[in-house]
Design brief:
Elements (H helix, E strand, L loop, with lengths): L2 H18 L4 H14 L5 H4 L6 H18 L2 H12 L4 H16 L4 H19 L7 H12 L6 H12 L11 H17 L20 H7 L6 E5 L16 H5 L2 E7 L2 E2 L14 E5 L2 H7 L6 E3 L6 H4 L4 E8 L15 H5 L1 E8 L2 E3 L13 E7 L3 H6 L3 E3 L8 H5 L1 H18 L3 H14 L5 H7 L2 H19 L2 H10 L7 H15 L5 H17 L5 H11 L11 H5 L8 H27 L3
Antiparallel strand pairs: 1-4, 1-5, 2-3, 2-4, 6-9, 6-10, 7-8, 7-9
Length: about 600
Amino acid sequence: MSDQYLTLGILLIAVLLFLSDKLRPDLISILTVVLLAATGVLTAAESFSGFGSSAVMIIISVFILAEGLRRTGVSEAFAERLLRWGGRREGALVTLFMGAGALLSLFINNIAAAAVLIPSAGAASSRSEVPISKLLIPLVFATIMGGMATLLTSMNILVSNIFEKHGLEGFGLLDFLPVGIPVLVAGIAYMVVWGRFRLPAKDKSSPDICFGGRGKLFNLYGMDELFFRARIPEGSYLDGRKLSDSLLREDFRLSLLGVMRHGERLPQLEPDTVLRKGDVLTLKGKASEFAEMDREPRLEILTDVCLTPSDVETFEMALVEVMLSPRSSLIGSTLREVSFRQRYGMNVIAIWREDQPVRRDVRNTKLVCGDALLGLVSIEKLPVLKQDPDLIVLTPTAGLEPMSRRRGPAAVAIVLATLVTVVLSGIPMSQVLFAGAMLMVLSGMLSMEQAYRAIDWRVIFLVAGMLPLALAISLSGLADSASSILFSCLGGMPPIASVTLLFLVSALLTQAVSGAAVAAIMAPIAVAAASGSVAPAPALGMAVALGSSMAFLTPLGHPVNMMVMGAGSYRFSDYRRVGAPLFVLLTIVILVAFSLRWHLL
């Protein structure tokens, strides 16, 4: 069997696996590498060449630089500034958060940019009473569009690397700006003028993921069903007993969270704390079950008291909401299986999923992408929770250490110096960015261990596996054959027709398949088309790169879309409803920009 047919078979297997969503994309990528080597389509060295590519080194460097900005408080300081500028008008907030998301994604990973701004969007929603569902899709769409304006996006890096390997000129850091800026302007204008009105207003049914409004958050999760207050009446056997002798946990499975005495909360609860008549206890448990079990006048349940988060928090424990990151290793596992409480010091009370809270048997509920978790976390463990890449903390924490905050300007200087050197020096981008990343470590902005944790190795393995597949598509002649088939019907037509076809095929595939995989599949076809002189090579390459980022029709096209699906209580159709007009508008803007830049008509 010829290499071309073998490559086609491996490509079809990979695409079907991507579409089935049965296996993780990075695992599919690794299996592709193994198949290419096992079938002899590529040599062993060629099969694993992706791991040593400049594209992989650029992506690793970007992860480390972005983590340096986050750990020194630069990203959060930017988000905090937005809250002061935000105002209360919906249109102004949409413009502000889209602009901020686009700006951040020019320099850092789209997911990281969204993770920084989602809590601020929640706070602005609570303060202004603008539904959170009106802000989150515009925010994540803006991070995607911002990534289209810079080379520092996985799809753009991948296409540039494939072009360079085939002897064509790759893209520079600023090459995408002439097309990316019109895309950003058109996208933000569409969302402010029309798109936001096509979004659902689901503020009342969605969790309040924000700095403020924690009382509403408490009510949305139905915490009044899990906590209650009770008074120690006269004659109760608890009067005068030590807490250690109360038997509240042993006999009634109740956890005591706080004691109010004479209208003031006791500062500390110890085993030898003595309970008194008239004390009001805040208890975790079901009041109805306790009422059925209580026979003596131990406690008088207070039914006319409205609980607030401060009632269930202690001096050591804070009420915090977190969300699973799109590529979290916790997805598919239960809290018990991952020892969540021991690992993070967080006792999860409820899970928000598909517009409603899950409060029953949460420890044995399998987690899915988009889940938000509400629980009490140890104050000492907050830094661990905040720094873990598997989770995004949605409620405020005490902030970063003062030392880290003071290093913020230095971290910004390192990033700016790195980018300026990339533009002006002529030194290969992978070398400059990696040097900047190492300078971030050597200057103490983050440790090597933190740098390793900052890298999303799933993205690295996905890209490193797709590069050999792209090589096989070229070397086997499959790219030439596909190019001939695709463009045979366009003979005699202007170059814009070929660019449009390549762009649309890439953009439509991206709605269901990882953008990086689409870029790896389509870039060799663009190379073959460029050799046939159907259109300028940069236009064909950029058509594939930008088409692979057009993930606006479904939540499947980009992890950042899945990231807010649960938090905004969005349905699958919401993405299509607001994304379809945006898809058409940006397609027109991109093709017009291509035509003007490369005279394709």
